[in-house]
Every structure is written in structure tokens, then in C-alpha cells.
Design brief:
169 residues; alpha+beta; 6-stranded mixed β-sheet; 4 helices; 10 strands; globular
């Protein structure tokens, strides 16, 4: 399963060996400062194009690799039955990155908090103004995520609202 992490000022997607073979790529990087939106897609296979350049897809099962969709350059690593984190960006190689993960809601909330933390009046562009190059990792095992809303620098009220909006009903 793909791993998502914030490493310095980048969101990094690392693929397993099998996924990397299917996608023809081992990892994808997006600068946090270029992210415009983060959300969760419950049925990601319905939202991605199966036309791949390069990559591998099986309708209804999985899709890995690069896509051109509605004039946008996308990277997808999605599997049936798993929700996906969708990262929209501007000014980078990838306009959209879609990655399936069991903890997609938690990851999206944490990344959205990063976006809130770098909003108007905040000098932190992904590193929250502390100069830290701390590596925050999302592992495959359940448990603490490493990325926390408190560390992301979002105000407490925004964190509660975000978690409430992104929590499955």
C-alpha cells in the first residue's frame, strides 16, 4: 500500500514495489506550498480516468500511473474498496494526485490542517515557521499518525471543525 508523508516542505507518496512496477514510478512529490485543496474520495475508481500514460489499470479493481484527465496531469494509485486522499495543486508537474489509503480521512484532515496553518498572515509555508525539517511519516500500521493537527499549526476551533466535517458519518 502507498505511504503518504510530509517530508520538509513536500508531501511525498511512496509506492510499494508492486505498485511502483504498475505505475512506472517509485514516488511522487508535491510541494506543500502548491497545494490548493485536499479532500477524500470514497469511490476513487469512479473519479479517475482509466487511460494511462504510463501505468496499469483494471476496471473495477485498481489504477496506477499517470493520467491526462480534462486537460490536467494526474497521478493515481487507487484500489477498489479503499477511500483515497485527493491532492489538488497548481504550478507543479502534477495537477492532481489521488492515493488510496485505509486512513484516508485522517490523512486528509492532517494535510488540510497544514493548508490552514499556512493561510493568510502565517509565514509557515509547510514548515510552520519553525524551520524544522522534521520528517512526519504515515505508516502502514494502525496507531498514531505522526502528523497531528496540533503540530500542523491549525487553531483549535478549525481543527475541531475540520475533524467534524471529515469524519465518516
Amino acid at each position: 500500500m502507498a505511504e503518504l508523508e510530509v517530508n520538509g516542505n513536500d508531501v511525498v507518496v511512496r509506492l510499494s514495489r508492486v505498485e511502483a512496477l504498475a505505475a512506472c514510478r517509485r514516488e511522487v512529490r508535491l510541494p506543500v506550498r502548491n497545494l490548493t485543496m485536499v479532500h477524500v474520495e470514497q469511490c476513487p475508481l469512479d473519479a479517475v480516468s482509466l487511460l494511462r500514460l504510463p501505468g496499469l489499470a483494471w476496471p473495477g479493481a485498481f489504477a496506477f500511473g499517470s493520467r491526462r484527465h480534462n486537460g490536467r496531469h494526474e497521478f493515481v494509485a487507487v484500489r477498489a474498496g479503499l477511500p483515497a486522499v485527493v491532492l489538488d495543486a497548481e504550478g507543479t508537474l502534477w495537477d492532481r494526485v489521488v492515493v488510496s489509503h485505509r486512513q484516508a480521512v485522517d490523512i486528509a484532515a492532517e494535510l488540510a490542517a497544514l493548508l490552514l496553518g499556512r493561510g493568510p498572515g502565517n509565514q509557515g509555508h509547510g514548515d510552520h515557521g519553525n524551520g524544522s525539517q522534521e520528517k512526519r511519516r504515515r505508516s502502514r500500521q494502525p496507531g498514531p499518525t505522526g502528523l497531528t493537527l496540533e503540530r500542523a499549526g491549525a487553531p483549535a476551533r478549525a481543527r475541531r471543525q475540520l475533524v467534524g466535517e471529515l469524519s465518516p458519518s
